[in-house]
Design a protein that fits this description.
alpha+beta, four-stranded antiparallel sheet, oxidoreductase activity, Dimeric_a/b-barrel, EthD_dom
Length: 105
Amino acid sequence: MILVSVMYPGGSDAQPFDLDYYLKHHMPLVRERWSSMGLDKVEVVKASGTPDGSPAPFQMMALLTFRSLDDFQKAGAAHGKEIFGDIPNFFKGQPVVQINEPQSF
């Protein structure tokens, strides 16, 4: 299992983010295209700040759980152009994508 974090930069000079489009159009597209390709879970989180009150470094994050790295790579090859091509419709900046391996403790 892997967790893919798609993080949209925030901070004091953050690009505008169209949350309505993201939740009503983009994330349903992600689920529709990738659920049959190993996407098990999707969680969207919106930043509200940092402990010291400064703007959060990322304003929005999508946390995508895939069965395997291979599944994620195949899903990206099949539909990544369409999904990543939709980003300018809600965010003009460049998201940061990170692949994570969940750990048990």
